Amino acid sequence: MKKITPEKKQAIQEKLLHWFEENQRDLPWREHYEPYAVWISEIMLQQTQVKTALPYFHRWMKELPTVKDVAESSEDKILKLWEGLGYYSRARNLQKAAKVIMEKHDGVFPEDYDSILALPGIGKYTAAAISSIAFEKDEALVDGNVIRVLARLMGFKENTRLPENEKKVWELAEALLPKGEARNFNQALMEFGALMCTPKAPKCMECPVQKNCSAYEKNEVEQIPNRGPKKEHVKLDIALGIIKKSNKIFIQKRPSTGLMGGLWEFPGGKIEAKEKPEEALKREIKEEVGIEIKNIKKLKIINHAYTKFKVKLHCYEADFENGEVELKAATDGKWVELNDLNEYPFPAANVQLIADLIKNGGA
Ligand code: SF4
């Protein structure tokens, strides 16, 4: 990447700061820049858009207004508040970090960058975001929005997913940071990426830094940023069972680490090649839960896309036939009343199914 000239640097700093002053969204964590609120917002906004995160943020702050509340909450409550946001390790790490803050920092969010970076679930980006936004420290940051804005401004066409190229973007962000203005400048870069210099159809015609933008000048906006070859989604077919016994439904809890860790789910599993969904369901329930089922009836198919794979959930209802529950992978299992299902955190793909079940008074 070419070195930025002092004139271009000054123009970008001034114009973006001015643009932010005029156009920033009215967001709750911007009211007082209280470290706890900034931290929660930053974790929620990883991989999630502001408009999706906002209702979650409001609910979280109402239910868990302090670090102490997070540290002392049950894991189920934390995950329920996170239900639908995805990347559940973020919520589990929030609680781990809250416990560290209570134990090591007397319940006060630490101010120095290294102590923030040492907290569970906080990487280089989030530490810089909290340091600069909550504590006004001169820490530069780079996220997906910033990569796009800076790569376009500099006409940087290399694959920014490669670590050596991402490093160059970080170096540029550091060079570009106006000292003493990190809170507003970092937010300006991110907000500008979210509202103006968007992935598709950026608003170049209204853009205050259009004259300083190399991608615009060379008509290369659509080719930048270069994020490398597209990754194919892995496709998974899963059979899932609403297993009933005396008006109760069986649910189980996933191990606390790994994908959707700590969430509750209906039992089931992957449909193997050449296997019928009903056969897969019977086999999985026997293998994973240790019980036999009967009267298997199809309910619906739910398609759900995660970041790296697409799931086709073949949903069935069935009756318990015999056997003792003996869990192989799940860490807990319960027979629960239909109306109590809403008290448990479930993966997003199951939420609509539960709503349908409750609406219809059972499967
Ligand atoms: Fe982004 Fe277009 Fe502005 Fe360049 S001119 S910074 S591509 S919005």
Properties at a glance:
alpha+beta, 7 strands, seven-stranded mixed sheet, elongated, binds iron/sulfur cluster, Endonuclease III, domain 1, 2 domains, 363 residues, Nucleoside Triphosphate Pyrophosphohydrolase
Task: Give an account of the 3D structure.
- The protein has helices at residues 6-23, 35-45, 50-63, 67-72, 75-82, 89-104, 113-117, 124-135, 144-154, 163-176, 182-195, 214-217, 277-289, 348-359; strands at residues 234-245, 248-253, 264-265, 268-270, 292-305, 309-322, 332-337.
- With 363 residues, it is of the alpha+beta class.
- It is elongated, with a radius of gyration of 24 Å.
- The longest helix is centred in the first third of the chain and has 18 residues, at 6-23.
- It has two domains: 6-223, Endonuclease III, domain 1; 234-359, Nucleoside Triphosphate Pyrophosphohydrolase.
- A hairpin with a 2-residue loop joins strand 1 and strand 2.
- Strands 1, 2, 3, 4, 5, 6 and 7 form a seven-stranded mixed sheet that branches.
- It has 14 helices and seven strands.
- Helix 8 crosses helix 11, helix 9 packs across helix 10 and helix 9 crosses helix 11.
- Residues 152-153, 196-197, 202-204, 207, 209-210, 213, 215-216, 221 line the site of iron/sulfur cluster.
- Iron/sulfur cluster is lined by residues 152-153, 196-197, 202-204, 207, 209-210, 213, 215-216, 221.
The CATH top-level class label of the largest domain: Mainly Alpha
Shape: elongated
Number of strands: 7
Give the number of helices: 14
What is CATH's topology name of the largest domain?
Endonuclease III, domain 1
Portion of residues in beta strands equals: 15-25%
Q: CATH superfamily of the largest domain, called what?
A: Hypothetical protein, domain 2
Helices and strands, in N-to-C order? HHHHHHHHHHHHEEEEHEEEH
Biggest sheet overview: 7 strands, mixed
Ligands in the structure? iron/sulfur cluster
Low-confidence stretches: none
Q: Count structural domains.
A: 2
Measured distance between first and last alpha carbons: 59 Å
The helix fraction, in percent, is 40-55%
Specify the CATH architecture of the largest domain: Orthogonal Bundle
- Rg over alpha carbons: 24 Å
Overall mean pLDDT score?
Answer: 95
Class of secondary structure makeup = alpha+beta
So what's the oligomer here? single chain
